[in-house]
Design goal:
The protein is about 30% helix and about 20% strand. With about 525 residues, it is of the alpha/beta class. A nine-stranded mixed beta sheet has the order 2-1-9-8-10-11-12-13-14, sandwiched between helices. The chain folds into two domains: about 375 residues, ANL, N-terminal domain (Rossmann fold); about 120 residues, GMP Synthetase, Chain A, domain 3 (2-Layer Sandwich). The radius of gyration is 23 Å and the shape is globular.
Length: about 525
């Protein structure tokens, strides 16, 4: 495939790039989505007409530049139309994950005081293939001029972090932040108008917003919306994607699928981008064996999100690559990674103290601990705030140990705890279908009907080799089953798969479970 060069400079905004694209390629296929038993599609011109209609609707409501509107629905054509319309008008689009608890959703909405709200309870408008004629080219030119009049450094969106603390912060990102970071991602993972990407990650989070939505618009390729994993697999068989983005948990699902059915996603899939958390060595090797060595990167919402990335064609395991184009990083004396570049956020919404705590003269404190390898690639070791101290005074960075223990095929989830305890405890949610029959116990009170004591004893023996090179205080003193699988639904895990450790501890204690031996 011949790769198309990036634009010579970063576009004024993603919305402006969209209207420029429409003027030249209005009749080209752009968007696919499932509707019952068939795949519907729109051209760029049909999308443009839908965006113009949404602009008219918002204008009729009296929404003006600088106002805020909220969207809390799954990915859909409606989501995309609303997003481009907002950015064309200079309206701040507040994108919320519709899966978060209702109380959190209501709190975030109250904090931004929006002029218009669309939430999941409103129901999603059904779209068909012929709902929109193509917008006249001269009208697209008018909207391109309107988008260009919006200040490039004005707020474009507010994305609430799915961080490990219970109260999310509203990250304010500008048009420059979004456009520059999408271009930087395309520099690391070049894509063209011939690419068709499958989307299963939510646009309400920075990874999919930049690395799928924005890069799709900047390249002018095709995008297929997949509401579920099952839709993604079915969609791959139907429309043969070339690019897909996943978080590590989904990447492991993909590896399992490909091990069973090597051609499950079609013959044209050439690029797998993985972000949100670290990719284990074994997972990298399994995917590479199928011709899909993951292009791993690192970022955070406050950086729009891309900070570092492996380069496509030069993927290496164990690290997150080098800084993306236009980005400078440094590691301070305490091991914290700082980043500076055009993707660094404007700040947290109405929270100057929190903003001042992480921004210093243009530098963003990521809060992540990192080192740089001899080959120039960076390795992320986890959140500085995630470390805890044992009662012996020794400090533990649980993320590294979790990555080691999670490679066990018996384990689906693995959480390391131990704040204030003499040693660490490991709480697991096992993969029942991977555990031999002799450990199954129908009379067990556990939901998985496994003999917990026997399985945990076996895990201890299985982990002896993995833990042999670790300091003595990192060898688990206690292994227990989690009462249930952790998920975003019970607010114990973030959308990108990181553990809310403090909430997990409180949750276990409410259930009367002790954290030590």
């Amino acid at each position: 495939m011949v790769l198309l060069d990036l634009p010579p400079s970063v576009p004024h905004s993603v919305a402006h790039a969209f209207w420029e694209l429409v003027q030249h390629r209005s009749g080209s296929l752009a968007l696919w989505w499932p509707n019952q038993d068939r795949w519907c599609h729109w051209t760029w011109g049909q999308i443009a007409t839908g965006v113009a209609q949404e602009i008219h609707r918002l204008s009729e409501l009296g929404v003006r530049r600088g106002d805020r509107v909220v969207t809390a629905v799954p990915n859909s054509p409606r989501w995309i139309l609303r997003d481009i319309a907002c950015h064309t008008m200079g309206i701040i689009h507040v994108t919320l994950d519709w899966r978060v608890p209702q109380s959190q959703l209501e709190e975030c909405i109250a904090r931004v005081q929006p002029c218009d709200v669309v939430v999941q309870q409103d129901g999603l408008q059904e779209y068909g293939e012929d709902d929109h004629p193509e917008l006249a080219t001269w009208k697209a030119d008018q909207w391109a001029k309107a988008a260009q009049q919006v200040d490039v450094d004005a707020p474009a969106t507010i994305i609430f972090t799915s961080g490990t603390t219970s109260r999310p912060k509203g990250v304010v990102l500008s048009h420059r932040n979004l456009a520059s970071n999408a271009c930087a991602k395309l520099d690391a993972s070049p894509q063209t108008r011939q690419d068709l990407r499958l989307n299963v990650l939510p646009f309400s989070h920075a990874f999919a917003r930049t690395c799928e939505l924005s890069t799709w618009i900047l390249t002018g390729g095709q995008l297929a919306l997949c509401p579920t994993w099952e839709h993604m697999v079915a969609g791959a068989r139907a429309i043969r994607p070339t690019v897909i983005n996943l978080v590590p948990y989904q990447a492991r699902q993909l590896a399992d699928l490909l091990d069973q059915e090597p051609g499950a996603l079609g013959p044209q899939l050439r690029m797998l981008n993985v972000g949100g958390a670290a990719v284990e060595q074994d997972l990298f090797e399994r995917l590479a064996a199928h011709g899909l060595p993951p292009v791993q990167g690192y970022g955070l919402t406050e950086a729009s999100p891309c900070v570092c990335a492996n380069r496509y064609g030069q993927q290496l395991p164990g690290g997150v690559g080098k800084p993306v184009r236009g980005t400078v990083v440094r590691i301070d004396a305490s091991g914290l990674l700082w980043v500076r570049g055009p993707q660094v956020m404007l700040g947290y919404w109405q929270d100057p103290d929190a903003t001042a705590a992480v921004l210093d003269a243009g530098w963003l404190n990521t809060g992540d601990l990192a080192t740089q390898r001899e080959d120039g690639h960076y390795v992320i070791h986890g959140r500085a705030e995630d470390r805890f101290t044992l009662s012996t005074g020794l400090q533990v960075y649980p993320g590294e140990l979790e990555r080691v223990l999670s490679q066990d095929p018996w384990v689906e989830q693995c959480v390391v705890l131990g704040e204030g305890q003499p040693g660490i405890s490991v709480w697991v949610w096992p993969k029942a279908d991977q555990i031999p029959p002799q450990y199954h116990c129908p009379a067990s009170e556990h939901a998985l009907q496994l003999d917990e004591a026997a399985v945990c004893a076996a895990l201890r023996d299985r982990w002896l080799e993995s833990c042999a090179a670790l300091p003595h205080y990192l060898v688990p003193r206690c292994i227990r089953f989690l009462p249930q699988r952790l998920s975003t639904g019970n607010n114990l895990i973030t959308a990108k798969g990181t553990y809310r450790r403090r909430e997990i501890v409180a949750w276990l204690r409410r259930r009367g479970l002790t954290l030590g031996d």
